[in-house]
């Protein structure tokens, strides 16, 4: 999960560089994704810690539930970045 978040951060940085030349639609889409990114960044570290703790204390089921919440957010942002990249390329 940490590696996936690192890749998303890299995509985000690349898109930010292209946005200065982009149209309003792309900028608006990026603004929406930025709100989701902020939520993910604020929750990723605590959830990752919770996943490790859950794995050692309560077992796989708790880890899966915690990981699923983080996974949904990551997939949504990744999809948005891919759509935005297609607008910018």
Distance between the termini: 27 Å
- As residue ranges, the low-confidence spans are none
The average pLDDT score comes to 79
Helix percent reads over 70%
Radius of gyration: 15 Å
Beta-sheet strand percentage? Answer: under 5%
Number of strands: 0
Biggest sheet statistics: none
State the order of secondary-structure elements, H for helix, E for strand.
Answer: HHH
Overall, the morphology is elongated
Helix count, DSSP H or I runs of 4 or more residues: 3
Number of domains: 1
Structural class assignment? mainly alpha
Blueprint of the fold:
Blueprint: H1 2-19, H2 24-57, H3 60-88
Attribute tags:
89 residues, mainly alpha
Note down, in words, how this protein is organized:
With 89 residues, the chain is mainly alpha-helical. The protein has one domain (2-88). Helix content is 91%, strand content 0%. The protein contains three helices and no strands. Helix 1 runs antiparallel to helix 2 (24-57) and helix 2 (24-57) runs antiparallel to helix 3 (60-88). The protein is elongated. The protein starts with a helix and ends with a helix.
Could you give a short description of this structure?
With 89 residues, the protein is an all-alpha fold. It contains three helices and no strands.
